[in-house]
Design brief:
Blueprint (H helix, E strand, L loop, with lengths): L28 E5 L4 H11 L4 E5 L9 H14 L6 E5 L8 H12 L5 E4 L5 H18 L6 E6 L2 H5 L1 H5 L5 E6 L1 H7 L15 E3 L13 E3 L4 H14 L2 E3 L9 H14 L4 E3 L5 H8 L3 H13 L7 E3 L2 E3 L1 H18 L3 H15 L1
Parallel strand pairs: 1-2, 1-10, 2-3, 3-4, 4-5, 5-6, 6-9
Antiparallel strand pairs: 7-8, 11-12
Helix pairs in contact: 2-3, 3-4, 9-10, 11-12, 11-13, 12-13
This protein binds acetyl coenzyme *A (ACO), pyruvic acid (PYR) and magnesium ion.
The site of pyruvic acid has 10 residues, from helix 7.
C-alpha cells in the first residue's frame, strides 16, 4: 500500500502526473467491437457518432488465432480516425495470458495519445492494479505521453468481489468498475449458463393457501446480480469512481436487457456495455434520466430554496436528503443535455409542464 503522501506521485520518471479527479463524461454505453473483424471495424466510424464510448476488445470473444489481428486492427483504427468527443477504450487480455504484455506495450506506445481508458479483465485484488499502474507509467514515459491513461477493472472473480473496495482505491488511475456476470458466475461456481441477466429458477414463492402446495402460489423471479452490483456501486462511490453494469448476452431479448440495465441505473450505475448495435439505443434510453424524472427533480430543487427544512410537494415530504437525490438526477440531465439538443428540448418541455 502506497503512503497517502505518495498516492499522486508518478510511478516512473517522465510519466505524466496522475489525475486528481476522474473525468465524469457521458459513458452510458461502452460499445464493444472486435478490431480484427473487418465487417465490424468498417462500421466503427458510423457507430462512433452514436455512442459515448467505443471499446476495441482484445480479450474474450476474440479467438486465440485472431489476437494479433485484433491488436493491429485497433492500432490502425485509432491512427486513422478522430472520434471527437467519443472516448476510445480498449479491453486488454487478462494478466495471466500470453498476450497482455504485448497488448500494453503496443497500444500505449503506438496509440497511447488516442486511448482514454484501459479495461483490465479478471482483476483479483489491488496487486493486479498496482502491476498495471507501474507498467503504464513506464510506457507513458517511453511514449512521451502528457495525459495519463485511466484504468477500468472488470469485477468477474470471486476474489475480485471480496476485494472490490481495495481495487476501487488501488490507484488514482482507477476510472471505474464493470460487473462481469459471465466470468463471475463461473468463478463462483454458479449454475447459470448465460451471459448476464436473470434466471427463471432464481425465485421466491408465496406461502401455500391450502393443502395443495402447487395451487395459487405466485412466484417472483429475483435479480441474481443485486448484491454484487450494490456492493460495486458502494465501492466506487466511496472512491469517487464510476460503476457500470457489463454485458447482456441475449441480444434478441431487448426487453429483458432494458430491465437489467434499468436496475443497474436505479442502483447507481452510469452505463452498461453494448455488445451489438441493437443495444446502443437501449443503454442511451435507460442511462439518460426520463424527462418526467428530470422535471420532478428540477421542481423539488426550485421549491426547496437553500435545500434546508422540509416542504410538501404534491403530497410528498421533501428535505435535505431528497433534494440531494434530485440534484444527482438534474446534474446528470444537464451534463447529457449539454451535448444533445433533442434531450435538452425534452427535459425543458417536461420541466415547463411540471412547473406550470
Ligand atoms: C462476457 C464478455 O466478455 S462480453 C464482451 C465480449 N463479447 C463481445 O465483444 C461480443 C461483441 N459482439 C459480437 O461479436 C456480435 O455482435 C455477435 C457475435 C454477438 C453477433 O454478431 P452477428 O451474428 O454478426 O450479429 P448480426 O448478424 O445481428 O449483425 C448485424 C451486423 O452488425 C455487425 N455487428 C454486430 N455486432 C457488432 C458490434 N459489436 N459492433 C459493430 N458492428 C457489429 C455485424 O458485423 C453485422 O454486419 P453486416 O450487416 O455488415 O453483416
Ligand atoms: C464482462 C465479462 O467479461 C464477463 O461477464 O465475463
Ligand atoms: Mg469476462
Amino acid at each position: 500500500m502506497r503512503s497517502p503522501k505518495d498516492f499522486f506521485a508518478p510511478l516512473a520518471l517522465g510519466a505524466p502526473a496522475p489525475v486528481r479527479e476522474i473525468p465524469v463524461t457521458p459513458s452510458r454505453m461502452i460499445h464493444f467491437f472486435d478490431p480484427g473483424n473487418e465487417k465490424m471495424a468498417a462500421k466503427v466510424p458510423d457507430i462512433a457518432k452514436k455512442v459515448d464510448v467505443l471499446l476495441g476488445n482484445l480479450e474474450d470473444a476474440v479467438r486465440a488465432d485472431r489476437k494479433e489481428a485484433a491488436r493491429a486492427g485497433l492500432v490502425a483504427i485509432a491512427k486513422a480516425n478522430d472520434f471527437g468527443k467519443t472516448q476510445l477504450w480498449t479491453r486488454v487480455n487478462s494478466l495471466d495470458s500470453p498476450w497482455v504484455l504485448d497488448d500494453l506495450v503496443t497500444l500505449v506506445t503506438e496509440i497511447g495519445d488516442k486511448l482514454d481508458v484501459i479495461m483490465v479483465p479478471k482483476v483479483e485484488g489491488a496487486q493486479d492494479i498496482h502491476y498495471v499502474d507501474r507498467l503504464l507509467a513506464q510506457l507513458e514515459a517511453r511514449a512521451g505521453l502528457t495525459k495519463p491513461l485511466l484504468v477500468h477493472a472488470i469485477l468477474e472473480t470471486a476474489s475480485g468481489v471480496a476485494n472490490v473496495e481495495e481495487i476501487a482505491g488501488a490507484s488514482p488511475r482507477m476510472q471505474g468498475i464493470s460487473l462481469g456476470p459471465a466470468d463471475l458466475a463461473a468463478s463462483r461456481r454458479m449454475k447459470t449458463t448465460r451471459v448476464g441477466g436473470g434466471h427463471p429458477g432464481y425465485l421466491v414463492r408465496t406461502d401455500p393457501t391450502g393443502e395443495d402446495l402447487t395451487e395459487g402460489r405466485t412466484t417472483y423471479q429475483q435479480d441474481l446480480w443485486h448484491y454484487t452490483v450494490a456492493r460495486m456501486v458502494d465501492a466506487c462511490a466511496m472512491h469517487g469512481i464510476l460503476p457500470y453494469y457489463g454485458p447482456f448476452g441475449d441480444i434478441r431479448d431487448v426487453v429483458a436487457c432494458e430491465d437489467q440495465f434499468r436496475n443497474a441505473f436505479l442502483l447507481g450505475c452510469v452505463g452498461a456495455w453494448s455488445l451489438h448495435p441493437v443495444q446502443i439505443d437501449i443503454a442511451k434510453k435507460v442511462f439518460s434520466p426520463a424527462p418526467s424524472d428530470v422535471a420532478w427533480a428540477r421542481k423539488v430543487i426550485a421549491e426547496m430554496g437553500d435545500g434546508t427544512g422540509a416542504v410538501m410537494i404534491d403530497g410528498k415530504m421533501q428535505d435535505d436528503a431528497s433534494v440531494k437525490q434530485c440534484r444527482v438526477v438534474a446534474e446528470l440531465a444537464d451534463a447529457l443535455a449539454a451535448d444533445d439538443p433533442e434531450l435538452a428540448a425534452a427535459y425543458d418541455a417536461a420541466t415547463k409542464e411540471a412547473l406550470g
